[in-house]
Structure formats: structure tokens, C-alpha cells
Amino acid sequence: MKSNDNTINWFEIPVTDMERAKKFYQEIFGLDNLETTDMEGVSMAMLPYQGGSGKVSGALVKGDGFIPSSTGTLIYLNANPDLKEVEDRIEKAGGRITLPKTSIGEHGQMCYFTDTEGNRLGLHSDK
């Protein structure tokens, strides 16, 4: 890896109910429809991405060995320009805010939430 490469290349958020999880993420981010595919027995709903751009993306995944968790690695999802807009949709969509919008000084704002599957995630925005 070169020093200017993205450290994260891809992430997967485990789910137990794909349709419920898709609905949750579509609602909080204002998305129309997450493209779903199956790869070797794993169901995946792709989060927005731009192929070949070098930008990081990921998917909701359902399959053997993918277990939602409120502990472990914490992923921060991009909620620019202002995470408050996304945060305000979380509980309406069935999730739970565990740490409301909090300043991290010159690095912007962040919050923690639990999705409909029981995963702990973060949001980050510049303001």
C-alpha cells in the first residue's frame, strides 16, 4: 500500500433481515433502491459507489458467518454535508441514536447509532 492509498477498500455490514436493513439505510440516506446481488451464497445490497474512482464503499450482507454486532469494529458512514439530517431519520426508520451529534473540533461532527439489525455504526460530517 502506498501512503496516499485509502486504508479502507471495502466494508460489509452484516444483516439478518435484508429487506428490513435495505429499507432502513434507504430511508436514513434518502436512497431510492439499493442494488441486490448474490455472490457465492451471500446476499449483498450495494451501497452507493462510483466504480474506478478509488472511493470506498461497501454493502449490506446476509449469509453464513455474517453476524450483526454492537461491539467490535466501528465504521463511520459519510453524512455530509450535515449529519443532523441523517441522524433525524434514524429513529423514524427503526434505529436508535446512542450518541447524538457531537463536535470533534476541527474534524467536524460525529454520532453513534444502532441500526435495525443491532449493528453499532457512526456517522461523520464536516459540519
Can you describe this structure in just a few lines?
With 127 residues, this protein is α/β, with parallel strands linked by helices.
Report on the structure:
The chain has 127 residues and is of the alpha/beta class. The protein has one domain (10-125): 2,3-Dihydroxybiphenyl 1,2-Dioxygenase, domain 1. The chain contains two helices and eight strands. The protein has helices spanning 18-29, 83-90, and strands at 10-14, 36-39, 42-46, 57-62, 76-78, 96-103, 109-114, 120-125. The strands form two sheets. A four-stranded mixed sheet has the order 1-4-3-2, with helices on one face. Strands 5-8-7-6 form a four-stranded mixed sheet, covered by helices on one side. A hairpin with a 5-residue loop joins strand 7 and strand 8. Helix 1 (18-29) runs antiparallel to helix 2 (83-90). The longest helix is centred in the N-terminal third of the chain and has 12 residues, at 18-29. The protein is globular and about 45 Å long. The model has no long low-confidence stretch (mean pLDDT 93).
